[in-house]
Amino acid sequence: RHPLATFFHLFFRVSAIITYLFCDWFSNSFVACFVTILLLLSFDFWSVKNVTGRLLVGLRWWNQIDEDGKSHWVFEARRVPTRAASTEAEARIFWLGLIICPVIWTVFFFSTLFSLKLKWLALVIAGISLQTANLYGYIHCKLGGHKSTSRATSSFFVTADVPKRQERRTPDHTEEHGKTGTR
Question: Which residue spans traverse the membrane (predicted)?
Fold first, then answer.
């Protein structure tokens, strides 16, 4: 069980949304509101990508650039034989938060456009971008269900020897599958 990870998975997301909705009530400074919301969105992106995805659902994704300058996207899923009821609840919370928040930011996008509050448009686009990037990464990890990572936390931080091939098998029975492309 990971109650702290579950809390922070939702805390930054919900805080960014609530701050966006009620920031004008507490501050007249557009810049202060903009920076606060952008920081909350950034904290959310980092915590979901680097911590809560790994702990709550056993998924992770990242990008590496090899010596030739090619971008390699790596999507991994840990094999979990059985899950306890609490872990299933955490997984549901993870996926609901991951799916619902980009929808909310998309509603904010259309609301901003139709109300002609164009100064908020850049912030809303940043919210959509960060939330959708995590959603895309984790859906890609989930669809590649045959990929697995080691249960050892230390293997999550190994970055040596970027593979030149699409797949490689490492001694700890970890498969890495990359989608190669240039930016």
Answer: 26-46, 93-114, 120-139
pTM for the model: 0.71
> Buried b vs exposed e over 11-31: b needs ≥16 C-beta within 10 Å?
ebbebbbebbeebeeeeeeee
Q: How many C-alpha atoms does 154 have within 13 Å on its Cβ side? A: 1
| Cβ(156)–Cβ(149) below 8 Å | yes
Other residues' Cβ atoms within 10 Å of the Cβ of residue 123: 21
Contact residues for 99 (Cβ-Cβ < 8 A; gap 6+): 135
Per residue of the chain (183 residues), what is the pLDDT tens digit? 888 888 988 999 999 999 999 988 888 899 999 999 999 999 999 999 888 888 888 888 888 888 888 888 888 887 755 455 458 888 898 999 999 999 999 999 999 999 988 889 999 999 999 999 999 988 888 887 444 433 333 333 333 333 444 444 444 444 444 554 443
Instruction: List the alpha helices (DSSP H) in 3-84.
Output: 3-26, 30-47
Phi-psi region of 29 (alpha: psi -120 to 50; beta: other; left: phi over 0): beta
Report the distance separating Cα 157 and Cα 161, nearest Å.
12
